[in-house]
Amino acid sequence: MGVLTGKVALVTGASRGIGKAVAMAHAREGAKVVICARRQAELKRAAREIQAAGGEASWIAADIARSNDVKRLVREAERRYGTIHILVNNASILGPREPIARYPLAAWEQVLKVNLTAQFLVTKEVLRLMIARREGSIINVSSGVGRIGKARWGAYAASKFGIEGLTQLLAEEVKEFNIRVNAVNPGATRTEMRAEAYPEEDPLTLPTPNEITAVFVYLASPESIGVTGKSFDARDWLNKSN
Ligand SMILES: NC(=O)c1ccc[n+]([C@@H]2O[C@H](COP(=O)([O-])OP(=O)(O)OC[C@H]3O[C@@H](n4cnc5c(N)ncnc54)[C@H](OP(=O)(O)O)[C@@H]3O)[C@@H](O)[C@H]2O)c1
Question: Which numbered atom of ligand 1 lies nearest the CA of 141?
Fold first, then answer.
């Protein structure tokens, strides 16, 4: 029996990187996981990997920036598994590394749409199920630049500041329904997004996504009941066994 046995987890942006590792860790602890991303082939491969490791996983291709996709995603997860106990709002895009003075409006709007508005859309749909059952854990993936602003992080940083704020206000709103809402900053991690942001960096100097999942499992598990509205750093939990 794992600490998440009997639970259903939805992880967005889980076809690769941190989302995939978090989904894998949840499945290892006994959760049934539903993973989503836009591109089907990579997503399907991720689901097969989780299944090959003995986990229960289902994939649903969806663009979380589209409200119809989000409705379909949550309805389909509910149809397959009955409900959702754990939501990991992980999917995001980097956008251009440009100063604000040169930042293109279209990119600004797209980054905020995927990294903030889409998290609102997914959360709103999933809350319908969590409020009805009066239980749930929502884990919002943030970033160091969502806590301290840094030059040339533009809409990405603004969206992550938004995620931190959304975490705090939602935690207050849903406390009465036994739903906890927390944010996790993964810290620099060996993924495609990190390589795009720091092309000159040696990825081998960074922890892999599989090494940073312990805090996610803690926040999803009953061990964290009562913990809400807080911001965590996955690096503080590095290599802790789940
Ligand atoms: N890696 C780091 O060092 C680091 C540091 C701090 C914070 N983070 C945060 O950690 C999270 C995961 O990052 P990562 O490095 O693992 O990124 P990644 O390797 O680029 O993976 C991003 C995932 O999100 C999916 N995605 C992107 N847009 C989507 C959309 N509109 N709808 C559905 N899925 C979408 C991607 O698949 P598709 O492209 O097929 O949709 C992919 O599965 C992000 O929130 C990121 O901001 C990462």
Answer: 45
Q: Domain of 169: which CATH number?
A: 3.40.50.720
Residues 6+ apart with CB under 8 A from 103: 96, 154, 155
Q: Which atom of ligand 1 is nearest to the CA of 90?
A: 45
Residue 142, pLDDT > 60, answer yes
Q: What is the pLDDT of residue 148?
A: 98
Cα of 210 vs centre of ligand 1, distance in Å, is 15
Ligand 1 center from residue 134 Cα (angstroms) = 29
Q: How many separate domains does the chain show?
A: 1
Q: What is the mean pLDDT of the chain?
A: 97
Q: For ligand 1, atom 30, which residue shows the shortest CA distance?
A: 63
For residue 205, the CA-to-ligand 1 centroid distance in Å is 20
Q: What is the pTM of this model?
A: 0.98
Residue 1 domain-assigned (yes or no):
no
Q: How many CB atoms lie within 10 A of CB 221?
A: 19
What is the phi/psi pair of residue 4, to 5°? -115, 15
pLDDT in tens, 94-106: 999 999 999 999 9
- Measured N-to-C along each axis, helices 17-28 and 40-52 cross at an angle, to the nearest 10 degrees, of 30
